[in-house]
Structures are given as C-alpha cells and as structure tokens.
Amino acid sequence: MNKQDFRRICVVTSSRADYGLLKKLMKNIKTDKELILQTVVTGTHLSFEYGMTYREIENDGFKIDRKVKILSRDNSSRGLLKSMANCQLKFPSIFSELKPDLIIVLGDRFEIFAVTSVALIECLPIAHLHGGELTEGAIDEAFRHSITKMSHIHFVANDIYKKRVIQLGEQPSKVFNVGGLGVDSINSLMLIKRDQLENDLGFEFKNKNYLITFHSETLESDSTEKQFLELLKVLRPLKETGLIFTLPNSDTGSLIIIKLINKFVSNNLNAIVFKSLGQLHYLSCMSHMDGVIGNSSSGLLEAPSFKIPTINIGDRQKGRLQASSVINCRPERSCIEKAIKKLDSKRFLASLKKTVNPYGKGGASKKIISIIKNQKSNGILKKQFFDLN
Predict the structure, then answer these.
(1) Domain ranges of the chain
(2) What is 194-354's CATH topology?
(3) Alpha carbon of 121 to those of 114, 117, 154, 234: distances in Å?
(4) What would the pLDDT profile of 264-307 be if each residue is shown by its tens digit?
(5) Single pTM value for the model
C-alpha cells in the first residue's frame, strides 16, 4: 500500500450495542497485516450506570487507544446537548494525536453524530456503517442521515438502504451493500449452552422466557414512563415466565425506565436485570428465549437469525426492514397482550421455521475490509452530489 491509502483505521464506539456489531470487524482489522487498528471508546462505555462496558472491550483483547468521557449525568435534552458539546471539545485533540487515515463509525447515536462532525471539520475521511435505515420514532433518525451526509464511504445492510443513501445524494460508487454486522457476530461466536448460561447469569430459566429491552421514544420522551408502565402491566401477571431485562440506551427519559425496571425486579422473583450482558452472553441468552420484547433494534437485526419471535412495541424502530418473525404493536396494554397471545399461537410458532433475516447471512466484516483496502484517499473529501434522474 502506498502512503496515500488507508492504513490507520480508527474505530469509535460509544455503547455496548455498536460494539457488539463492530467487534468482528475490529478483530479482522487487528489481524490484517496491512492495517493498524485504533480503538477509541466513549459514551456509555465509561459510565458506571451503564456497566462500564469498556472492560468487555479490553477483555476481548483490544488495546483501547483513548477513553473519552463525555456523558453528562443529566439525561434531559440539555444534558444530552452538554454531552455532545463535551465530545466536540475533546475529540479534536484525540484525532490530532492518533492521526488516523480513516474513521469508522456505526449507526445513529448522538455521540457518534458529534464525533463525526469533529472528523468532518478536521478533514478526516469517514466510513459509515448501517446508514440508510429508518427509525421514525427516535431522534436517531435525523442523526443517522446527517452522519451519512458527513461520511465518504458507506456500508449498508440491504439494497433498500443502499438506494436510500444514494437518494440522499451519495455517489453509488461509494455505497456498498455488505449485509448486517449482527449476523457476522452470531456466525462467529460459540454460543453458551443453557445450563452454563444459567450458572453464569445466576438465574434459573423457566419453561418460558422473554428477553426485554425497552428504550425511550426520544421524539415522545414525555410518554416514556406511560409506555413502559403499559408493558410492565402485561408482564406482572406472568409469574411462571422468566423475564430478563437489559438496561436502555442513554437517551432522554432512560433514567425513568431504569428506575421502573429496578423496582419491578425487586418485587418479582421471576425477573432479573443486567446493566450489560456482553455480546456473548446477550446473544447466547437470546438463542434460548421464547421471545424478544421491547423496541430494541436487536429484535429486528439479530433475533430473526435464531428464528425467535420479536414483539416490537411503538414507533422507535418504525421504518426498519423486518422479518416475518416480528409482531408490531402499539405501546398499550391491550395491544401488547394481543401480541403475546399471537406469539404463543401454534400457527405463528410453526411459521418461524421459514424466517429469513433481511440483513443477510454474514460475511460483512471481510467485505468491508476488502473494500477499504481498495479505496484511495486522494480526492475522497470532495464529494459530488449525486442527482437522481
């Protein structure tokens, strides 16, 4: 490779969720003799409230080049803005020190939006993963499309998403459908067997078990408490069902959800909560579940690969491609009860065998690295808007 090509690849991760998707790609970059991996962690990775998940990254054998604390303890809209400001103040010096040839970011979080804006102003090439997707019930929708416009290379998970990124004016020659990174994670892990998993978690599974993750609908954050209470009303009578909660993302309204989860778990012996399970335990847990409930993207991206049903509540994930295993419902008690009834029906359970994950069959990480190694940095910063005919 000549000196103008991409060699120092800086991966920025801000949460357990994006790290779970990035992990396989990071491993492949690390072991590639022509590339140098730089790892920068920020956001909830460095928050006690969310499990200090940077430790998982270190335990996976990655050297963390920089840890950048940005989160405000206030998770109101003003607190979120303060976190973004902290990010924009701190990251210029980080990039100046590391001198990366390419920044890799994933998704749609406010932290990643702030990081990407710094990279843009510092004239650093940016590769964006999982662009073109829709989440009409969250502010992440606007962040995602904004990150797309600031980025120079695009790796999407489906041809529909590829078309959408091009529709935003990006050059078709810079938009690549590589499939979903979550499928890579599932294919690369040796999942934990049920008995060992119960021992690791300190929780005995029941005959029926649900994995539950519920995030704030950030465009309706005032209704977060009401929506989540509707779900808890449905779960409370299920005394013979194992209920495994994971905590929400750091969004406006997330602390309300955390408080309600902790209270529910303390009063229900069939329920347990984890700040973060880590990727291996999370996906292993999912593989043994009878259903995934909430509004997390993992119910759409990963659960279909296990042919496990998902009850997708509300509008947070509205617009994302879905497998036939996904049941959509409004955040209302009667609608959630109806969805669980459908989930348990013999006809629906029989249909799960035909589930096809719309995010592909794997191999995204290798495709991304191959494409990056064939990209030239010369002239990449000056983008020409692509007009649709």
Answers:
(1) 8-179+363-373, 194-354
(2) Rossmann fold (3.40.50)
(3) 11, 6, 19, 48
(4) 999 999 999 999 898 899 999 999 999 999 999 999 999 999 99
(5) 0.90
